[in-house]
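Marked as duplicate of an earlier ticket. Keeping the data here for the record.
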Amino acid sequence: MTPTQSLNRTEFVVLVATLISLVALGTDIILPALTNIGGAFGVERANDTQLLIGGFFVGLSVGQLLSGPLSDSLGRKPIIYLGLSLFAIGCCISIISPNFEIMLAGRVLQGFGAAGPRIVTVALVRDQYEGRAMARIMSFVMVVFITVPMIAPALGQGIMIFAHWRGIFVALLIVAGIGFVWLAIRQPETLAHDQRRELSLAGNLTAALEVFRQRASSGYILAGGVVFGAFFTYLSTAQQIFHEVYDAADLFPMYFAILAVGLGAASFTNANLVLRFGMRRLSNLALIALNIWSFGFLLLIVAFQMPVGLWMFIGWAIVALYCMGMLFSNFNALAMAPLGHIAGVGAAVVGSATTLIAVAFAVVIGQLFDGTVVPLIAGFGVCGAIALVIVLITGRGLKGVDRADQATTAS
């Protein structure tokens, strides 16, 4: 039977977080296995295993461009179903892959499929909420979502204790199946037939161009892509850092979970403060703090030639990730604020462009890994500084976004 009654906020938040979590789970659960996968396929350069993370995000960015517009024409749920199915096929390819190239292709397809749940659920939220109310819902989603990076590496490492590393992709299949059934049984469609757009390439291109003509959208896409490039670098190099720099591969899941606390705390803080202070003020303060913290830390270790011990690095990273966590939902909501009438295309373009920019920065910074944490810390500082300049320029004269920033009720 097709569900018709809207979910209560708690179940809606958990369902959305579960669907979006395929992105975090799809990346974080394989982190402990990167060395094993590289060894199994004879990968010569350790830095090349980062491509299994980067390839996933490339597929994600391309998939978002299609998922959003299709969801505006065909409805939200069918496109999420399609994405979950493609994700499952990508997992099957990874399970049977005979070499690194095929494995990488499976990872790209997993990212492509994950784009459906990732981007269309944002449009699903935007169908029902706007402004600060949307940012608040997304912050609650992030609070639930943040448990994934806390447990995913431990889950991946646990699977490798009792099974082959390919069993990790079996676990991903199971999670995708749970999301598919839950969505089908409990969540009603949020896009009415009379609100759907005609499936038109010209129309979608026009809507996509409109996204970039919106000062707020284009500005926060660019700023988000730059600063999240530093975060993607952290995801790509975390396993190498704890394995090669600190010789702590066995305890990597525990340390990764500790660092995830910074992101979770930020999401919880943002959910409780955004209605009072607004998205722009909180995100600007977070960027300023990220710059001061990262450049100050970098100056300290370079000027005094100070070795960065394990717990010294963890202390820096928790604060840096806390600042980063204050940006995720706010930047997304600010970019989406003028795009309610084209939420599907808007979410697709915002998500895809942000991801592509972030991947480009992450690949460059990640390849600079030299057996120390200096490139990562410098990357956070430089990306944060560029993003701050962009949002300050973007923020001039955004009266429409200021009104959306003050909206507190569901649409």
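See parent ticket for discussion. The chain has a mean pLDDT of 86.
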